UniProtKB/TrEMBL annotation:
<feature type="transmembrane region" description="Helical">
    <location>
        <begin position="29"/>
        <end position="53"/>
    </location>
</feature>
<dbReference type="InterPro" id="IPR000620">
    <property type="entry name" value="EamA_dom"/>
</dbReference>
<protein>
    <submittedName>
        <fullName>Permease of the drug/metabolite transporter (DMT) superfamily</fullName>
    </submittedName>
</protein>
<feature type="transmembrane region" description="Helical">
    <location>
        <begin position="214"/>
        <end position="235"/>
    </location>
</feature>
<dbReference type="InterPro" id="IPR050638">
    <property type="entry name" value="AA-Vitamin_Transporters"/>
</dbReference>
<keyword id="KW-0472">Membrane</keyword>
<feature type="transmembrane region" description="Helical">
    <location>
        <begin position="146"/>
        <end position="164"/>
    </location>
</feature>
<dbReference type="GO" id="GO:0016020">
    <property type="term" value="C:membrane"/>
</dbReference>
<feature type="domain" description="EamA">
    <location>
        <begin position="149"/>
        <end position="285"/>
    </location>
</feature>
<feature type="transmembrane region" description="Helical">
    <location>
        <begin position="271"/>
        <end position="292"/>
    </location>
</feature>
<feature type="transmembrane region" description="Helical">
    <location>
        <begin position="65"/>
        <end position="82"/>
    </location>
</feature>
<dbReference type="Pfam" id="PF00892">
    <property type="entry name" value="EamA"/>
</dbReference>
<feature type="domain" description="EamA">
    <location>
        <begin position="9"/>
        <end position="137"/>
    </location>
</feature>
<keyword id="KW-1133">Transmembrane helix</keyword>
<feature type="transmembrane region" description="Helical">
    <location>
        <begin position="94"/>
        <end position="114"/>
    </location>
</feature>
<keyword id="KW-0812">Transmembrane</keyword>
<feature type="transmembrane region" description="Helical">
    <location>
        <begin position="185"/>
        <end position="202"/>
    </location>
</feature>
Amino acid sequence: MNPTLAAHAAAILTILIWGATFTSTKVLLQAFAPIEILFLRFLLGACALLLACPRLLHVRDRRREVIFALAGLCGVTLYFLLENIALSYSTASNVGVLVGISPFLTALLARIVLGESLHPGFFVGFVCAMSGIICIAVNSNAVLRLNPLGDVLALLAALTWAFYSILTRKIGDYGYNTLQVTRRIFCWGLLFMLPTLPLSGFRWDLARLARPEMLANLLFLGLGASALCFATWNFTIRILGAIKTSVYIYAVPVVSVITATLLLGERLTGLALTGMALIILGLVISEGRLPLRRPKA
């Protein structure tokens, strides 16, 4: 398969799985604390990647190791912790909207740090996609209102994901195996997570996994959303670049609405459909698939 086509296919697969993680997490929250879900899913993901590719990655350049450590800190530890804490102080609607600007922040950082170009369609697509995300947020019957601490934390979560995208784009230039790269990032993320476990009431009570739905959803998050998806996402960034890859994040709310409708029985309203249509249109425009000006004769 053409590498570019393979990268787009990998991005779509990633978003389809990531969009369903909210439903799985919602099920697991019945028995697990957020930090327990986070730590166990990435620990499971790291073990799965070790089985898939046992060969160790030897990084002799300390500066490269620092990049790996920063990627683990930003993309695994800080992003998910900031997002979870933000949800404790602000509404899910606010957090969803604010985290949704991560592609825009990624684009700005990629332009500044990596020199990647931005076409006008990216900004038009951003406005279109954000309008769709707001429609879906309002559809959740939650009023969008300011919650200073939670909203700032959500913005910081979006910024840390943008930094993660830039760091993995840099790592992609090293030419390492994608599975080894992803596993190393996971290991750094887990290492940075360890100090938070005693403070968050983490328990090694795996008896909770005796319930089939708990085990199934944790396996989905660990093997699918973590091991598989972070590997495919890192591969996509290496091929397409940080900007083109990041705009696929716009589609996460669309998948979330569909899975919530199919699996949780939530009602699909006209406002939600409008939001989904706007997000998909924004994604297409941001990827440069729709011309915004007539070609010269």
